[in-house]
Amino acid sequence: MALLGLDLDRSPVRREDTPPTSSATSPPETAGDIVKPTAIGNDSRQETVWKGADRGKTTVPRVGEKRTKSYGDYYKGNALQQLLNATEYFVGGVGDRRQRRKLEKRESLEEIAPRKRKQTIKSETSAEKISDKKSTERRKQIKEHSEPKPHNESEQEQSGEQNGCTPWFLSHEMSKNVKITWSFFDPEADNKPKELELTSAYTLVNDRLDRYVMKNPQITPREVYLLYPLFDYQEKYLLAECKLNAWFNPIADIARVMELTATVYMPEKARKKVIDFDNPSNCLIKRWDDAVNRHDGDQLVQLIEEYNSLVAKLRKNGQMIQHIRQRKTFPQLLVHEIMNQCYLRGVLPDYRKLRSYKAFSNYVYGELMPSFLSRAFNQCNLSHTKVFIDLGSGVGNCTIQAALEYGCESYGVEIMDHASRLCRLQTEEFEKRCAIWGVRHGAMKFFLGESFVDNAPVQEVIDRSDVILVNNYLFDSELSKKVVDLFSNLKTGTQIISLKPIVPPGYTISWGHPESILSRMKCTRYTYGENDVSWTSKGGFYYITEVLPHINEEYLRALPARSQRTRGKELVLNAFTNNV
Ligand SMILES: C[S@@+](CC[C@H](N)C(=O)[O-])C[C@H]1O[C@@H](n2cnc3c(N)ncnc32)[C@H](O)[C@@H]1O
């Protein structure tokens, strides 16, 4: 999904980066050592009284002899000379007090050099060892995911699952299977009415033809149709190679649909025709990959026909519907791919306007990615019996994913008009895509064009929610305070996922307000990884805050009483102490 938002990684210029200025006119930070120069500048031919490195000794350097500068030498001369001296001092002089003390302790510079080198080599070796270990682990991981895993046919028949990850178009998340605890697959999916108007992939390419390469005569834009597994629906595509700036790639999109259909909906024998881990060289996806690399458009069209006839046959004899009725799990990737399809078709064509917010305001737009959400929802034990709400739901991604992946009752509230409009489009597309993939979702409701503040129906949902999401990364302090007020009546056990802590760091219970909901919250910090959020490719922190049945004793810690402060002990407040 696209990066929407500001570059939030900008940070103010660090103080250490500021070069020394005419502060050079003030002495470096070594005031304890008094130097009484008798000579101006560095003229070693003149007699100099040294203190510092050779504290207490009086040395007269010989003519031409090189000597280590004392700090006193650095603030001699006029302003310009002192500035130059200061530069030298900070860049490589003896200014570092600790360093200088070390120098004083050691007998000679020659002795230091080998020791330092030894130290550096030691630390380099350990760093190498770590990075070596990391890269070995990484190689192992990649190998595990990309190498076809041996199949135990009988086990597979029993569970009706595929374990492996495909080496081609689907990502590694393929290995994560979610246990089906509610009717995720619609057992009657093949008996649904046939008329559905979906946003087709054809429109996405046709509307932005300038983003597609037509130079290669082998790949001319061609209309093709792709069959879906259960519903009698075929999506129209315009097959074309895309330029770098094209956000929709029809060739990859088709491959993902074929691969997902085979992995989730086809019985073993048919699946192997599309993806075969044991003998990949001849399966359809491998031939597709090769044809893409050869820019062989005719072959791509032929492969789509081959795939369509396989799907038509399996659909006709009811093998695919039977297969999903037996499934006990579904791959998380199916959820992520349906989300991806809806986002590409419903949101992306018009996403630019989402950027039209006031910088650093509460309305800055940014998104949490499906894999991150799956992890966070899992940590909160979201399930089909629970209630979820996203406060500031944007185009509805999080609400939709919670309803689809966990089958829970799912709500979203969004104030901005454009995000609300895209949310409507995306939800419509989502309903239809669920039908063609034969999956169901929990009840969903959005409060669009409305604020979550002072909103009675929203407050009613918040009060009975089990999991609340608030992407408060850029909420200002006023809105953050209002958000906390919304949580006053949360039930015990409710969990809040947020990007900034709900309980302020260093919070202690004020005995004037022990009844504040914050006193009953436990806020835990977690780390998200690269590409988990849309506003940065780097990792960061997120928080899960749980409402406890009792006061969180951690917040009872306060400043120790004056009598105890000297003892250096921390005082734990309790009902018998009154010193806050
Ligand atoms: C950073 S986006 C989060 C979108 C989505 N929840 C996600 O994490 O992918 C925050 C959203 O909160 C919305 N928002 C800010 N203040 C709001 C309010 N008082 N009521 C409802 N929505 C609000 C903004 O318009 C924006 O769309």
UniProtKB/TrEMBL annotation:
Record GO biological process: DNA damage checkpoint signaling; DNA repair; methylation; subtelomeric heterochromatin formation
Gene Ontology cellular component list: chromosome, telomeric region; nucleosome; nucleus
CDD domains in the record: AdoMet_MTases
Residue ranges with Low complexity bias: 19-31
Its EC number(s): 2.1.1.360
Gene Ontology MF terms: histone binding; histone H3K79 trimethyltransferase activity
InterPro entries in the record: Dot1 (IPR021162), DOT1_dom (IPR025789), H3-K79_meTrfase (IPR030445), SAM-dependent_MTases_sf (IPR029063)
Keyword check for Nucleus: yes
Name this protein carries in UniProt: Histone-lysine N-methyltransferase, H3 lysine-79 specific
